[in-house]
Amino acid sequence: MKVGFLCAIIVLLHCHLILALSSQDAVLVVGATGGTGKQVLNGLVQSGLKPKNLRVLSRDASKLKFLEEQGFGTVKADLNDCDSLANALNGCSGCYLHSTVGDTKELDSNEVLAARKLATAMSLRETPMHVVYNSAVGEESLIGSRKQQKRAVEDLFENDFPSIDFTSLRSNFFMDPLWKKYTRPAILAGKFTFCVPPDTPIHLTAVADMGFLAGKCLQSIKTTKNRTINVSGDVLTPVEIAAAFAKCQGTPCQHSKGTTMAIMSRLFFKSLWEEIVFLRKTRITTDIDDLKQEFGKVTSFEEFLDNSGWADTSRTYEDLSR
Ligand SMILES: NC(=O)c1ccc[n+]([C@@H]2O[C@H](COP(=O)([O-])OP(=O)(O)OC[C@H]3O[C@@H](n4cnc5c(N)ncnc54)[C@H](OP(=O)(O)O)[C@@H]3O)[C@@H](O)[C@H]2O)c1
């Protein structure tokens, strides 16, 4: 009886050791050195991952040097260079894939091909891999070309690379780009132009929550593999968003439907127009209470504004990525 008890303790200790060791494996982080990248890294660290166990991938040595100075693991690689990917993946058992191309005005059609190269490099290794991917919510009938590419990346991992465990985090409207210079100065001056009717519910996602949930999924004992999870921390109408800005900045802010901007988008900016139509028509919801229960927290819009220092008028979008 005593021997059996001892054996059970040894087995438990052994399992604990295996878990502890696996938690030391590196997590490759792809596409998190751009405008929204630093918030992703903050979220991954908040989830319990150590900066030195994150291996942030970039083509740009100067960005990596900056991250190394902050204690992050890094690797110089290019998604279009298969040899560099094999090296980048060495010692990794998890990957958070935030992006495979730049978030450019003109859609970069390399997104799916770059994902295929990464998945191929993963499938050639013996180590099992869990990938968590930054995708986007949306009904099939409403999603534009940008979101369709993200669905194609989901399909690719799920159907062409079944040996890779895959979790899709479908983000809603990111809060962070509201800091960009084509929106923030006008909002601070009192006008929040958002081309949807004032009472339309908008699901909002803080980018840091993508990193946080990804980190939790990668470390989870309860599996999130082969799951699609919609991610949002708040749901507000444009009028309520404007009110939250006003409250945080301490100066008035009103929502404007932006009729001229809508016409301009329809005529000249295809992917912006697709997003406007989507936001006007989508009926997809995200269960925020469920997310809080499963992952412990998600960020409300008010918290996002406070945490990001919105009220400090000297700060810019670029400051968020430092
Ligand atoms: N849900 C929403 O509302 C919303 C809003 C905005 C963005 N997004 C999505 O969020 C993601 C990131 O947006 P962002 O604004 O942070 O993008 P970004 O500033 O353009 O950054 C792009 C990232 O992709 C990496 N990358 C591009 N090509 C690469 C290659 N060949 N090899 C390796 N890395 C490569 C870049 O790395 P290096 O240049 O350092 O190599 C960088 O880390 C995108 O998928 C975008 O669609 C969603």
UniProtKB/TrEMBL annotation:
InterPro entries: NAD(P)-bd_dom_sf, NmrA-like, NmrA-like_oxidored. It holds the Pfam family NmrA. Residues 1-20 form the signal peptide. Residues 25-314 form the NmrA-like domain. Keywords: NADP, Signal. The keyword NADP applies. Belongs to the NmrA-type oxidoreductase family. This is NmrA-like domain-containing protein. It comes from Cylindrotheca closterium.
